[in-house]
Amino acid sequence: MSAKPSLDRETLKDILIEFLLTRRSIRRYKKEPVSMELIKRILDVARFAPSAGNRQPWVFIVVADPEIKARLAKIHRWAYPLEEAPMGIVVACNKDTSPDSYMVDCANATMYIMLAAHALGLGTVWIQTLRNVEDIQKILNLPSSYIPVALLAIGYPDESPAPKPRKSLEEIAYLNMFGNPLK
């Protein structure tokens, strides 16, 4: 019986940081279908996202129907990636369950979906929904208490975008109070 090789802690840290830094917004997808088992695995990870008071106010609506995807892809001009993606996932939060934190709670769950998808070789793009809440509620038959916080296109990437420019740490990080540079 041979022992499994293991990674030392420093190597694992580097791999995980690199993983986080290589996630990209993917807007073009291969025609290859994504299995429902893979989607279930991703959503199973998303269940573990943090939420205020552990209320878990989210629901996940997997959109595979081409007609529904097409309708959602037309909610605004930046929603177009959904039409060609094999699937979409809508993250909706019950605002009555978490009235003060539902947006942040669902943002956390959305990020878990995006990171789990990335870990499994899939790409995603977050499509803004908050300007089109009522349209999405109508398309998906969501009760008015469920706010669609995110719409994700998901599939196998058919592009490899370069990282976009980011602000320097000096521009965004402060010590103890705003304006006091972090050195």
Short description:
This protein is of the alpha+beta class. The chain has 7 helices and 4 strands, in the order H-H-E-H-H-E-H-E-H-E-H.
Task: Describe the structure in your own words.
This protein has 183 residues and is of the alpha+beta class. The chain has a single domain (30-159), classed as NADH Oxidase, CATH 3.40.109.10. The protein is 37% helix and 16% strand. It has seven helices and four strands; from the N terminus they run ααβααβαβαβα. It has helices at residues 9-22, 36-46, 66-73, 81-84, 102-119, 133-140, 169-172, and strands at residues 58-63, 87-94, 123-128, 146-155. It has a four-stranded antiparallel sheet, sandwiched between helices. Helix 2 crosses helix 5. The protein is globular and about 50 Å long.
What's the mean pLDDT score? Answer: 95
Share of helical residues: 25-40%
Shape: globular
Task: Name the helix and strand elements from N-terminus to C-terminus, one letter apiece.
Answer: HHEHHEHEHEH
Strand order of the largest sheet: 1-2-4-3
What portion of the residues fall into strands of 2 or more residues? 15-25%
CATH superfamily: NADH Oxidase
**Named CATH architecture:** 3-Layer(aba) Sandwich
* Tally of helical runs: 7
* Largest sheet composition: 4 strands, antiparallel
Rg measurement, Å: 18 Å
| CATH C-level category | Alpha Beta
> Ranges with pLDDT <50 over ≥5 residues?
none
Instruction: Specify the structural class.
Output: alpha+beta
The end-to-end distance, rounded to whole angstroms, is: 51 Å
Determine the CATH topology: NADH Oxidase
By DSSP, the count of extended strands is 4
Structural domain count: 1
